[in-house]
Design a protein that fits this description.
Elements: H1 2-21, H2 30-113, H3 117-123, H4 128-220, E1 249-255, E2 263-264, H5 265-273, H6 278-285, E3 290-293, E4 299-302, E5 306-309, H7 310-315, H8 326-343, E6 350-351, H9 367-375, E7 379-383, E8 386-387, E9 392-393, E10 399-400, H10 403-407, E11 417-418, H11 427-433, E12 443-445, E13 458-459, H12 460-475, H13 499-508, E14 517-525, E15 530-538, E16 541-546, H14 547-557, E17 569-573
Protein name: Sporulation stage II protein D amidase enhancer LytB N-terminal domain-containing protein
Coiled coil: 31-79, 149-179
Domain Sporulation stage II protein D amidase enhancer LytB N-terminal: 308-383
Length: 574
C-alpha cells in the first residue's frame, strides 16, 4: 500500500511539474495563454488534493492504530510483570510442597519398615487393624501431596509458557509499532509536501485569476456595456423575440452586466418600490457600515471643473434617473458622496467625470435628485472608521459579489448575497423575485452578428464547434493558439483551425467530435449565483464542463462579439 501511494505521489509530482514547466510558444494574446496555464494549474491542484485525501485518511488510521498498539503493549508489559510474580510465588510454593512431601515420605518409609516379617510377628500382639489403618492414611496423604506437587509443577509450567508467549507478542508488537511509526512519518512528510505544493498552486491560480480578470475586462470593452446608469438608458435587446431564420438555435443569456459589486441601482429601484428606505437599501448592499456626516462644503477636486463643494459637486452627478423613487435616489446620493470622498482621499486628489469614476456633468440636475442630495446633506457610509469606496452598477442579475470575487482585492464592506425577495429554486424564480428584475439587462444575450436578425443565436453546429474546441484544448493544451474565433485574424499570428480541422485533430487523438448539439443543461448554485457545470448532449453523446471553463472557451471561439459576461448564465434553445 505504501509503495502504491509513493507511486501516486511521484506521478502527480511529475504531472504538475510538466504542466508548469513545459515549454510553450509565446502567444500574442496573453489571455489565452493565461487561461491555458490556469486550467493546467487547477487540474494539477485537483489531482494533488484528490491524492492527498486518501493519504490523510491513511495517516489518521495509522495514528489510531499506533495508539491502539501502544495500549496493547502497555497492557502486555503489565501482564508480563504479573506473570513473573506469579511464577516466582509458584516456585516458592513448589519448594515448600516438595519439602513437606519429603518429610512425609521419610515418615511413611519408617512406618512401612515396621511391616517386614520379623516386626510383623512382634506387632501381632498389638491392634493389627489400627496399625494397618494408620499406614493406609499415611500412604494416602503422600499420594495427595504428590498429586499437589504435580499440579503446582504444571501450574508453574503454564505460567512460564504464558510469560514466554507474552514476551514474544511484546516483541512482535514493538516491531509492528516501529513499522507503523515509519509509515506514519513518511505519510506525514508526503502530506506536508503535498500541502505546501497545493498552497503554491493555489497562490499561482489566484495570481493568474486576477490577471485573467483584467484581460477579460479588456475583451468586454468591445461590447461597450455601461457600468452604471450614468452612461444613459440601458440598451439590451431581448434576443428571445428575434428569429435568426434557423432552428435549432442556441444563445447564451447572462444575468446582469459587470461588475455586480456594491449598490445595485436597479435593485435599489426595486427595493424602494417594495417600501424600503434609503438606509435599508444601503445596509442591504454594504455590510458593517455606519452612517456619519461630513462637511458638505468641504472642497474636492473634479477633473475639468476645479474645486467644488462636496454637495455642490453631488448636484451635478448624473447616475440615476430623476423620476425614480426618492428613497432609491437618496441611497444613490449617499453612495455617490461616499465614493467621491473615498476616491479623492477626502479631497486630496482629483475625481474623473466619466463612468470610470462616476458621471458628472456639472451644474444642478435638480428635481428629485436635488431633494435627495439635500435630504442626505453630508451623509456618508463608514466602515471601520473609513469612508467606504461605495462601488455601484446598474444591474446585478439577482446576485451581488464581493470586491475580492470580482477584482481579487477584498473589502470588508462588500458582500456576496442573493438579491431577491425570497428563496430561489430555479431560473423562473429568479426572474420573479430579483429586486433588479425590471432592468432590460437583467437577463440578456450579449453581442450580435450583422446577419441572423442581428442576434446572438448560434447554429447547432456552431455550438458543437465551441464544444469541440474545448475538448481539444483540454486534451492538448498546445493546440490553444489555433483555436481563436474563425471570423477574426488570429491574435497569435498562426493559422486558425476551422471546425473541420478541429474535428480531425480530435479524431487523431482518439476523441469522437460533435457534429451537432441537441440539448444543453445548466447546473448552478442558487445561493451564490454561479454556474457549477454545463452538460452538452449531441451526436457524440454527452460531455460536461466546468461553468467558468465553458464560458472562457465560448468567449474565445464564438463569432463576432458574442460573449457570456458574468458568472451566472443560461443557454436557451429555440
Amino acid at each position: 500500500m505504501l509503495n502504491k501511494l509513493k507511486i501516486i505521489f511521484f506521478s502527480l509530482f511529475l504531472i504538475s511539474i510538466y504542466s508548469l514547466l513545459i515549454t510553450r510558444p509565446v502567444f500574442a494574446d496573453e489571455l489565452e495563454d493565461i487561461e491555458k496555464k490556469l486550467i493546467d494549474l487547477k487540474r494539477a491542484l485537483q489531482m494533488s488534493i484528490a491524492a492527498t485525501s486518501p493519504l490523510e485518511k491513511n495517516l489518521s488510521t495509522l495514528q489510531k492504530n499506533l495508539s491502539e498498539i501502544q495500549v496493547k503493549i502497555t497492557a502486555i508489559e503489565k501482564d508480563v510483570v504479573v506473570k513473573e510474580r506469579e511464577v516466582a510465588e509458584g516456585e516458592k510454593l513448589l519448594i515448600l510442597a516438595t519439602d513437606l512431601l519429603g518429610q512425609k515420605v521419610r515418615k511413611i518409609y519408617v512406618s512401612s519398615s515396621q511391616f517386614n516379617t520379623t516386626k510383623l510377628l512382634l506387632l501381632l500382639g498389638k491392634n493389627l487393624a489400627l496399625s494397618l489403618r494408620e499406614y493406609s492414611y499415611q500412604k494416602k496423604a503422600i499420594e495427595n501431596d504428590r498429586d499437589t506437587i504435580v499440579k503446582v509443577v504444571l501450574y508453574i509450567k503454564d505460567l512460564e509458557n504464558k510469560k514466554k508467549a507474552l514476551e514474544n507478542e511484546k516483541v512482535r508488537l514493538a516491531f509492528v509499532k516501529k513499522e507503523t511509526d515509519d509509515q506514519a512519518r513518511f505519510l506525514a512528510k508526503e502530506i506536508a509536501g503535498a500541502k505546501k505544493y497545493q498552497t503554491t498552486l493555489a497562490s499561482s491560480i489566484a495570481q493568474l485569476s486576477a490577471r485573467q480578470q483584467q484581460l477579460l475586462a479588456q475583451k468586454l470593452e468591445s461590447l461597450h456595456l455601461p457600468t452604471s446608469l450614468g452612461a444613459g438608458p440601458l440598451y439590451c435587446t431581448d434576443d428571445r423575440k428575434l428569429d435568426p431564420g434557423f432552428s435549432p438555435a442556441f444563445a447564451a443569456f447572462t444575468y446582469g452586466i459587470p461588475h455586480r459589486v456594491g449598490l445595485n441601482q436597479y435593485g435599489a429601484y426595486g427595493r424602494s418600490k417594495a417600501g424600503q428606505n434609503y438606509k435599508d437599501i444601503l445596509n442591504a448592499y454594504y455590510q458593517g457600515i455606519n452612517f456619519e456626516t461630513r462637511d458638505p462644503n468641504m472642497k474636492i477636486k473634479v477633473v475639468g471643473f476645479g474645486e467644488k463643494n462636496l454637495d455642490d459637486y453631488l448636484l451635478g452627478v448624473y447616475e440615476m434617473p430623476n423620476d425614480w423613487p426618492l428613497e432609491a435616489l437618496k441611497a444613490q446620493a449617499v453612495a455617490a458622496r461616499s465614493y467621491a470622498l473615498s476616491y479623492t482621499n477626502n479631497g486630496q486628489s482629483e475625481i474623473c467625470t466619466t463612468q470610470a469614476c462616476q458621471v458628472y456633468k456639472g451644474g444642478n440636475k435638480g428635481g428629485n435628485w436635488e431633494k435627495a442630495v439635500n435630504d442626505t446633506k453630508g451623509e456618508v457610509m463608514v466602515f471601520q472608521g473609513q469612508v467606504v469606496k461605495a462601488w455601484y452598477a446598474s444591474t446585478f442579475g439577482g446576485y451581488t459579489f464581493t470586491s475580492g470575487d470580482v477584482w481579487g482585492s477584498d473589502r470588508g464592506f462588500t458582500r456576496r448575497m442573493r438579491d431577491t425577495t425570497g428563496t430561489v429554486d430555479g431560473f423562473s424564480d429568479l426572474a420573479e423575485k430579483s429586486y433588479d428584475r425590471e432592468s432590460p439587462c437583467f437577463y440578456a444575450a450579449q453581442g450580435f452578428r450583422t446577419e441572423y436578425a442581428k442576434s446572438s443565436w448560434l447554429k447547432s453546429e456552431e455550438v458543437a464547434d465551441i464544444v469541440n474546441v474545448l475538448l481539444l484544448a483540454k486534451s492538448d493544451s498546445g493546440t490553444q493558439s489555433h483555436l481563436a474565433q474563425v471570423d477574426k485574424p488570429n491574435p497569435d499570428g498562426v493559422d486558425t483551425w476551422d471546425a473541420n480541422r478541429v474535428k480531425n485533430e480530435l479524431r487523431n487523438r482518439g476523441i469522437n467530435p460533435f457534429n451537432s448539439i441537441s440539448d444543453v443543461n445548466i447546473d448552478w448554485d442558487k445561493s451564490q449565483g454561479t454556474v457549477n457545470s454545463i452538460n452538452i448532449s449531441g451526436s457524440a453523446g454527452s460531455s460536461s464542463f466546468n461553468g467558468t471553463e465553458f464560458k472562457n472557451f465560448f468567449n474565445l471561439r464564438a463569432p463576432a462579439n458574442i460573449q457570456i459576461v458574468g458568472p451566472l448564465y443560461n443557454i436557451e434553445r429555440k
